[in-house]
Structures are given as C-alpha cells and as structure tokens.
Design goal:
mainly alpha; de novo design (two linked rop proteins); rod-shaped
C-alpha cells in the first residue's frame, strides 16, 4: 500500500518537475521573441530617418525608397505570433535596406554626410543585435521543442497544450542572396 502511494507521489512530483521545465522553456522562448521584436522595432524606427537623409541626395531613386517604406510597413503589420511570416517580411526588408545603403556608393556627398554615416552605423549595429536576438530565440525555441518532443516530457506537454515553436529563419533562398544594385 505504502509502496503504491510512494510511487504515485514520485510520479506526481516528476510530472510537476517536467511541467515547470516546460513552462520555463516556453517563457524563455517568449522572452527571446520579445527581444527580436524590440530590435526589429528599433530598426523600423530608424528607417524613416535613413530614407529622409537619402531623399535629399538621391531624389531620382524613388522606387528604392518607396520599396523600403512599403516593406517596412509590411513587416510591421505581420501578426506578433507569426514567426515564419515575420522572418520572410524582415528578410525582404533587409534586402531592400542593403540596396538603399548601396546607393551611398553612387552619391559621394551622401556617403560623406555625417547624419547618413551615423544612421548607417546605427543600422549596422542594429543588424548585428538582431542577429544575436535571432540566435537567442532559435536556441530557446530549440530547447522548448526538444522538451515538447522528448519522452517522457512529451506526455506532460501534450496534456497541458505545450507546442513547438517555429524557428526565425530565412526560408526563401532569394532572401539570402547579396542584393544587386544597378544605377
């Protein structure tokens, strides 16, 4: 009798331990996603300043400027939980930003402009921080996914509705390509 009761208590304690581990992993993934979101918002806030600076020097590059603005707006309109959609939109925005920054090569006055250089440096720093945030999120998502899929924690995960997270990655090979700029 005591052996059965002891076994039930041990199983219950193990289930609580696994559940708490799943909750911790889910919270880490949510915190990591929040970090990506913050960095992407900072980049989105920087883009209008960059566009205005470039506009003064490259008025005839209107299509490139409009494309960056449209892609920024599209990226910001992706629902918060749509990791794959956000990754795709941000990949396209990154390509357009690359083309925008490459315009500086054609406009020496713009390249020498202090405001533009500061914005470019800020954007480059932000891109680095976004990459770090993506790696952190993907690591947290991986840890949660392993727990959700591994036996016996998958039994507890299934009972309490824990689900795998998508990775924040570029799925379109064209998004990985170096942007081409033609003048």
């Amino acid at each position: 009798m005591y052996a059965i009761l002891g076994l039930i208590v041990l199983v219950a304690l193990y289930a609580v331990f696994v559940y708490n581990g799943l909750v911790r992993a889910r919270q880490m993934a949510e915190e990591a996603w929040s970090g990506i979101d913050v960095q992407l918002k900072r980049r989105a806030d920087l883009i209008p300043n960059l566009i205005e600076t470039v506009k003064g020097y490259a008025a005839h590059e209107k299509t490139t400027l409009e494309e960056v603005v449209a892609l920024r707006n599209k990226a910001q309109s992706v629902p918060t939980g749509d990791v794959a959609g956000r990754a795709q939109a941000e990949g396209l925005l990154g390509q357009a930003l690359g083309r925008l920054l490459a315009l500086a090569e054609a406009y020496p006055d713009l390249k020498a402009n202090e405001n533009f250089r500061e914005l470019q440096t800020s954007l480059e720093t932000m891109e680095s921080e976004i990459q770090m945030a993506r790696r952190y999120y993907n690591g947290a998502a991986r840890d949660l996914n392993v727990r959700v899929e591994s036996f016996p924690s998958n039994l507890v995960a299934g009972q309490f509705g824990f689900q795998k997270r998508d990775y924040f990655e570029i799925t379109n090979e064209a998004d990985r390509a170096v942007p081409t700029v033609k003048f």
